[in-house]
Amino acid sequence: MDVACQCGAVRFKTPLEKPLNLYHCHCTQCQKQSASAFGTSAIFPPFELPPDLPVSCYTRPTEKGYTMKCYFCKSCGVRVLHASSKGTYVSVKAGCIEGLDWAGANHIWTESAVIPIPEGAVSYPKEPTD
Question: Ranges for the CENP-V/GFA domain (predicted)?
Answer without folding.
Answer: 1-110
